[in-house]
Amino acid sequence: MENCIFCKIANGEIPSATVYEDANFRAILDIAPAAKGHVLLLPKAHIKNLTEADDAVLSAALPVVKRISGAIGKTLSCDGINVLQNNGEAAGQSVFHLHIHMIPRYVADGVTIPWETKSYEDGEAAELAEKIAENL
Ligand code: 5GP
Ligand code: ZN
To answer: Which bound ligand lies closest to the C-alpha atom of 7?
Structure first.
């Protein structure tokens, strides 16, 4: 897609610090990392977000995420890794080409992915679960 920065990076038109590449994906270091070694996995084909993605692309992505996460852990000896994927502006998506974040984490590193917890009224969770299930 024209003027999509991640299309250009994924397809090598713009250089990037690449940690992995295959026929379908490129994984790069995030330019503004939450921690050093924060990686983004980009499909080479332009896909806006998770709900528009092809199942085949998604099936291929998770083993790559696993492999890269293992390599991040081995390289940085971090204590954990967040795998994140934002869909829509309200959810924090700022680049509208599907990407999966892998963020190295350390005990008490101060990186926050916070939310305030909510609660359900009696019976509300079961009702909502049923409604979501009806839309699968
Ligand atoms: P989002 O907020 O859409 O989930 O994540 C977009 C990510 O892409 C951000 O973490 C941002 O730092 C990163 N990013 C945006 N533009 C570039 C770029 O040109 N190069 C690289 N390597 N990362 C980028
Ligand atoms: Zn794109």
So the answer is: 2
